Amino acid sequence: xxxxxxxxxxxxxxxxxxxxxxxxxxxxxxxxxxxxxxxxxxxxxxxxxxxxxxxxxxxxxxxxxxxxxxxxxxxxxxxxxxxxxxxxxxxxxxxxxxxxxxxxxxxxxxxxxxxxxxxxxxxxxxxxxxxxxxxxxxxxxxxxxxxxxxxxxxxxxxxxxxxxxxxxxxxxxxxxxxxxxxxxxxxxxxxxxxxxxxxxxxxxxxxxxxxxxxxxxxxxxxxxxxxxxxxxxxxxxxxxxxxxxxxxxxxxxxxxxxxxxxxxxxxxxxxxx
Length: 273
Ligand code: 15L
Known about the structure:
The chain is globular and about 50 Å long. α2 crosses α3 and α3 runs parallel beside α4. It has a 7-stranded parallel beta sheet, sandwiched between helices. It has a two-stranded parallel ribbon with strand order 7-8. It is α/β, with parallel strands linked by helices. Helices cover 35% and strands 16% of the residues. The protein binds D-galactaro-1,5-lactone (15L). The site of D-galactaro-1,5-lactone (15L) has 8 residues, from loops. The site of D-galactaro-1,5-lactone has 8 residues, from loops.
C-alpha cells in the first residue's frame, strides 16, 4: 500500500479527503493544528511548512504528496506569503531532496477567478487570479511546472472549486466538487502512470460548469455528481443583487474583497501579529 502525505490535513478539504481515502492508502496527515476528525490507521505529524526543516521531516519516505497545507482564502499578505509561497516552495523542494516524485497540488478556481461567468475556460487558459490568494495558487502551479521540467517530477494540479457534499449558493452550483468525486480525481493524480505536468479542474459534472474539463476526462475522470438537482431551491432562495463585479466573474466575492473569513484560521503568531 502506498504511503501518502497529506499536508493541511486538519482543514475541511483535508478531512473530506482523508475520510474518502481511509483504508486505500497509508496516510501521513500533517498540519499545524490538531486533527478534528481522525480515521483509523492515519498517522498525525505536526508540522509548520514555513520551516524547511519541518518540510524535510514530513516528506521523507512517502510515495506521493497531496499538498493542501496553506492559507485557503483571501487574507493578509503576510499569512499568504508564509503559508502559500514559502510553505509551498518548502514542500516542493523538500520532496525533490527526499526523492518524492509525485505531487498533487490542489490549486483553486481563484487562479482563474477573473474570467467572466459567460466564458468557458479549459486547462490551457492564461491564469487570471482574483486575489492575493489566487496569485499564490498560480505561483504553486508555476513551481510545479518548473519542478516537472527541470527535475523530472510528476505534478498534478487540481484547480478545486468548492468541496462540499451539497452546493451552498448559486456560484457554487457551477463549481461544486463532492467529496467522492474529489477522491476519484485525487486517486487519478496519485496513481496515473503517465503524469508529467497536468492542470485539471477539481469540480463535479455540473451542468452549470464554467469549465471544459476535457483534460481530466482524458486522464480517466468520470465524476458522479451534478449540482443541478439542488439548483431550483438554491436559485429560489438567493436574493438578486450583490456586487456587480463579483456577480460577473467566476471568482465571485474574491474579485472584490480584501479579507474573507478564513474557515481555518492559522494560530495568531503565524499570521505575523
Ligand atoms: C477556495 O479556493 C477556498 O479554499 C474555499 O474555502 C472556497 O472559498 C472556494 O475556493 C470557493 O470558491 O468556493
